[in-house]
Sequence to fold (153 residues):
Amino acid sequence: MVCLGNICRSPLAQGILEKKAADYNLDVLVDSAGTSSYHSGERPDQRSAENALTHGVDLSHQTSRQFVPADFDAFDHIYAMDSSNYNDIIAQARTAEDKEKVFMILNVSNPGSNMSVPDPYFGGDLGFENVYQLLDEACEKIAQDILHARQQS
Fold:
């Protein structure tokens, strides 16, 4: 899960998918990063963490880090929160296979839309709840897709 600073959207997406993976007993590694190093080492934004807790999602174990090319080796899927971050990730891809791992996260729940998850940093409490709802829907679809793929194999 990748956004710009790794303090609002991507930590929330990580937390939501981690919770869904636990709920569905899926053995998956979920992480998040930012395309910038602005907040490296910081905890998620307090408003994002508080909103997550109201939905039973704990972000307290997370700290911000910057996306690095080695993430292409560590992860099968890389979900960008918006087109700017998508382009920044693609620019770091070393191969065509790296590029094939990168997706706009809301295309999971709204195929072909290329919609961005809005940055809630300046959007107040309603902005954080809106982002939660968008990411929850996308992460539910990701979890269901993993569950169905495992059942097929």
